[in-house]
User: Which sequence fits this backbone?
């Protein structure tokens, strides 16, 4: 009997890896961080066209030139910054990008700082490649506690991972937070990786600043993104990173060794997404905002539940007063036919929280939130 490797064993203990796979009939899924929209037709057509044109062979390890150029165009359009294709590396989804960063820059014993709570894939990847995840607490409103953050920085700190907008918190970092993190990256000599996968899903007048707009952070930072959430393309598995050309050259070695290149027709679809009309993005964002308003209103009606506002992404991360742990609450709600994500999947700081995704239909949200209220009222 073959034994699993130590690196895989490190993953098997994470709460992320233990979520139930058998979904009860009639359950309402508020756990999926995935758009329910179809990929827009013009993006699908670009993939068909690529296949008809026989773009079905090995591609460039850095990514297809058309897509790298389209990413540069999107950076100019969205943020007013100039980048060249040499600053772009196309990856097999956002997860692929995270793994490339960790494999490239972490040696055994090196540390990566991660907010608590935060997207759990960062810690999994750090552990997978022999690094040590080091968590720092956030403020009560999920913004950066710089005093706590600086206390965790050591000579072993090589990388800092942060999602903005936040998963699971839905908060958008303020400009002074982004600039403060960039300043510390330069002073303390670490690599700042900002995951901006939800940057087009911003609500309620919140202002978003991309790390690529902080020019003096360019040689100490990586913008990590994907097409999954913005364009409803989770199954297409294409992501990208924007960084100084020497960093891109560093990272392509592992990327090429493990992937060769991402799916070429999928890349051509993403080029059409990034360079084409953005009307579909705004249409989806407006629908998400309607859903957000519905869920927020329903959450306020539930006793013993405290819910910070959602400024971006498609998540709420309410805190409950009931005498259960996050895992116990998730299991209780599962038994009531409501699927949410346990707060502690995202770190110890998520204790007494659960995550709700409003990336499903208004009908599902209406039913799910009414069911959630009944279930929590029974506990009260």
Assistant:
């Amino acid at each position: 009997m073959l034994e699993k490797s130590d690196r895989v064993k490190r993953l098997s203990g994470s709460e992320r890896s233990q979520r139930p796979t058998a979904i009860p009939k009639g359950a309402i899924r508020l756990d999926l961080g995935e758009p329910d929209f179809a990929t827009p037709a013009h993006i699908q057509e670009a993939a068909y066209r690529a296949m008809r044109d026989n773009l079905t062979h090995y591609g460039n390890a850095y990514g297809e030139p058309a897509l790298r150029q389209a990413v540069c165009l999107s950076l100019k359009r969205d943020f007013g910054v100039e980048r060249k294709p040499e600053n772009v590396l196309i990856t097999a989804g956002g997860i692929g990008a995270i793994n490339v960063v960790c494999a490239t820059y972490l040696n055994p014993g090196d540390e990566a700082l991660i907010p608590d709570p935060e997207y759990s894939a960062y810690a999994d990847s750090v552990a997978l490649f022999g690094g040590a995840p080091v968590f720092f607490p956030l403020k009560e409103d999920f913004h950066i506690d710089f005093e706590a953050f600086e206390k965790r920085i050591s000579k072993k700190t090589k990388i800092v991972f942060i999602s903005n907008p936040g998963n699971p918190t839905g908060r958008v970092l303020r400009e002074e937070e982004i600039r403060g993190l960039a300043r510390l990256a330069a002073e303390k000599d670490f690599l700042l990786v900002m995951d901006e996968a939800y940057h087009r899903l911003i609500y309620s007048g919140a202002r978003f600043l991309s790390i690529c707009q902080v020019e003096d952070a360019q040689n100490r930072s990586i913008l990590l993104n994907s097409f999954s959430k913005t364009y409803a393309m989770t199954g297409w598995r294409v992501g990208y990173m924007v960084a100084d050309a020497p960093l891109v050259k560093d990272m392509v070695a592992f990327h090429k060794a493990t992937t060769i290149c991402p799916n070429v027709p999928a890349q051509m679809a993403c080029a059409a997404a990034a360079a084409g009309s953005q009307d579909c993005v705004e249409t989806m964002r407006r629908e998400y905002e309607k859903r957000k308003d519905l869920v927020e209103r329903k959450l306020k009606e539930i006793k013993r539940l405290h819910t910070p506002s959602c400024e971006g992404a498609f998540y709420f991360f309410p805190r409950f007063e009931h005498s259960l742990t996050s895992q116990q609450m998730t299991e209780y709600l599962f038994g009531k036919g409501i699927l949410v994500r346990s707060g502690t999947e995202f770190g110890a700081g998520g204790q007494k929280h659960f995550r709700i995704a409003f990336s499903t239909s208004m009908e599902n949200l209406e039913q799910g939130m009414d069911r959630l209220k009944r279930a929590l009222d029974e506990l009260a």
Observations:
- The chain is about 40% helix and 15% strand.
- The mean pLDDT is 96.
- The radius of gyration is 20 Å.
